[in-house]
Design goal:
The chain is an alpha/beta fold. The protein has 14 helices and 18 strands.
Length: 444
């Protein structure tokens, strides 16, 4: 990675009111982005947001900065991140901006950018924006200033786009689905998509108040959804995160179905329909059960670093169209340009309807191996992963697993943690081995 000061793997993110998520910085960011993006032509930038209370403040600041640089802002109001990627393309805008901190709590927020093609900004554009941030802010002539407008039918357009990814000859009639919108950006979109395709929908966590986004609901906390699926005797449940780019599912028995299982179902269905081009991209955290199940189907599989932008890079490098993280970021390049929870869910529903099978049965071809993750805090400049004692214990554990499991040690990208992950066939053994490595890391 380059030495960027503000941009992380997914835009700029932090706690509201602390640098860099402050009104003055975001104003300057709008201006700097405007200066870089104004070189193209349409001079229009789309701005969407999730349901956080801080979204109002940040979109006003962005709008002022863009206007000073001579760009006009078109607001969509609360919209899923993938919707902004899609609408940026259809409106031929210079760029799309999403104000969201995804699955984080409400007092965080962030700014993500999409290119005119609906993909994340290339590194060199992000670097150019950072260079502008170092300069004092200026203002174009009054006649050149940007204007602000609102896109009235943004939700309707995106609903039609999502429905278009579901086969027109099929319908969701007869399916009872609980959908958990995390009090986030999908609250007025996902239930309508499913209803218009014929499903009986029970929608939960659809009363955003600016502060309840992702709170004990959504893709990061499935307990509410699991409970409702069982109470309603529903066929399945879908859960999105706050900005709608992730999905998790729950089968009729209340069991969690994660990104690995969703990827497996979509890949197998594509293979059956003769539509699978190439293979499938997972991450270093993808369960070994996914790898083994795809191998049985003869589907090539490769791992990228953790982070949806790395999954996408690997997919583009290989020319493949399917990739996902086990956290529920599912990227389907034959349908859209970024991870999209609603579109991914519709592909699983397609497999359910087409094969007359339950979600539970569709998962049965893949057995998730027990995976134990232990986080160890470390301080100072020493790198525990370079210590001989840690390497020795790790090698011993790998020898014990004898090719029937995996060991992964990595540094967290966001906090001073070493993540120790061990995977294998026996849960008790895997737990003991994970703690054995963790103890060696602690001892350093």
């Amino acid at each position: 990675m380059s030495n960027r000061k503000y941009f992380g793997t997914d835009g700029i993110r932090g706690t509201v009111g602390q640098a860099p998520i402050t009104p003055d910085f975001v104003l300057k960011l709008g201006w700097a982005a405007g200066k870089v993006l104004a070189r193209h032509g349409s001079k229009k930038v789309l701005i969407g947001k999730d349901t956080r209370i801080s979204g109002y403040m940040l979109e006003s600041a962005l709008e002022a900065g863009l206007a000073a640089a001579g760009l006009s802002a078109a607001f969509t109001g609360p919209m899923p991140t993938p919707a902004i990627a899609y609408l940026t393309r259809t409106f031929r805008a210079e760029a799309g901006i999403v104000i969201s901190a995804s699955h984080n709590p409400f007092d965080d927020n962030g700014i993500k950018f999409f290119s005119a093609e609906g993909t994340k900004l290339p590194d060199d554009v992000e670097e150019a924006i950072e260079l502008e941030l170092e300069k004092p802010i200026t203002c174009v002539e009054s006649a050149e200033l940007g204007r602000a407008s609102r896109i009235v039918d943004a939700a309707g357009r995106y609903i039609e786009f999502c429905k278009g990814t579901f086969p027109s000859e099929l319908s969701l009639n007869g399916l009872k689905i609980v959908v958990d919108c995390a009090n986030g950006a999908t609250y007025h979109i996902a239930p309508n998509v499913l209803r218009e395709l014929g499903a009986q929908v029970i929608a939960i966590a659809i009363q955003p108040d600016g502060m309840n986004i992702n709170k004990e609901c959504g893709a990061t906390d499935l307990r509410l959804l699991q409970q409702r699926v069982l109470e309603e005797k529903a066929d399945l449940g879908l859960a999105y995160d706050g900005d709608g780019d992730r999905i998790m599912m729950v089968d009729h028995l209340g069991h969690k179905v994660d990104g690995d299982q969703i990827l497996y179902i979509i890949a197998r269905e594509a293979l059956r329909q003769g539509q699978l081009r190439g293979g499938v991209v997972g991450t270093l955290m993808s369960n070994m059960g996914l790898e083994l199940a795809l191998k049985q189907l003869g589907i090539p599989f490769t791992r990228a670093k953790v982070g949806d932008r790395y999954v996408l890079e690997k997919m583009q490098e290989k020319g493949w169209r399917l990739g996902a993280e086990n956290s529920g970021h599912v990227i389907l390049l034959d349908k859209t340009t970024s991870g999209d929870g609603i579109v991914a869910g519709l592909q699983v529903l397609t497999a359910i309807v087409r094969n007359h099978m339950s979600l539970h049965d569709l998962c049965s071809g893949m057995k998730l191996l027990p995976q134990v993750l232990v986080n160890v805090r470390f301080s100072g400049d020493n790198d525990p992963l370079e210590e001989e004692s840690v390497k020795t214990v790790t090698a011993e554990v790998e020898k014990t697993l004898a090719g029937r499991g995996r060991v992964l040690l990595r540094k967290s990208g966001t906090e001073p943690l070493i993540r120790v992950m061990v995977e294998g066939e026996d849960e008790a053994q895997v737990t003991a081995l994970a703690h054995k490595i963790a103890d060696a890391v602690k001892a350093v």
